[in-house]
Amino acid sequence: MSILYSKIQRVNPRDPGAARKWYLIPKRVEQKNEKAIAEALAKNTTLSRGEASMVIDELQSVVLNSLLDGYSVQLGDWGSFILTVNCTGADTEEACTADNITGVNIRFRPGKQMKESISKATFVAR
User: Fold this and answer.
1) Where are the domains of the chain?
2) Are 38 and 52 in contact (CB under 8 A)?
3) Which of 5, 67, 90, 110 could cysteine-pair with 96, CB 3.0–4.6 Å?
């Protein structure tokens, strides 16, 4: 499998006066939505597109509710999801409250098989 890439010139945020450097970034052809994923699942399984769409909806709901209940979620060889928070520091334990939270993130950590598959990809200029 080949990954398309393009080139972009960027400023070093730590040294805005420095010369710009070129970097490679993965090229995103477009986004696949839930309907397209459901159609692909239906093509490769005995599920109809509607059934596959329902499974995706329920998977999202179950994963989200599990994360909100404090669980990390491991999905086989895919990897795992965890919640993290951005928080401002406090000088004392008493001053460290939920008001210090500035953001909540969902982090995905790919599993071994997914990492190995991605590491075998080749790159093609677009």
Assistant:
1) 32-71
2) yes
3) 90
- Reported as a single tens digit per residue, the pLDDT across 64-107 is 999 999 989 998 888 999 999 998 998 998 998 889 999 999 99
**Distance separating alpha carbons of residues 125 and 27, to the nearest angstrom:** 9
Tokens of 49: 């597109």
* 19: nearest Cα among 11, 8, 27, 30: 11
Contact 53, 34 (CB under 8 A): yes
Q: Which token pair is 105? A: 């993130």
pTM (predicted TM-score): 0.70
Q: Which two tokens stand for residue 110?
A: 């790919």
CA–CA distance, 73 with 90 (Å, rounded to integer): 30
Exposure pattern of 55-72 as b/e (b: 16+ CB <10 Å)?
eeeeeeeeeeeebeeeee
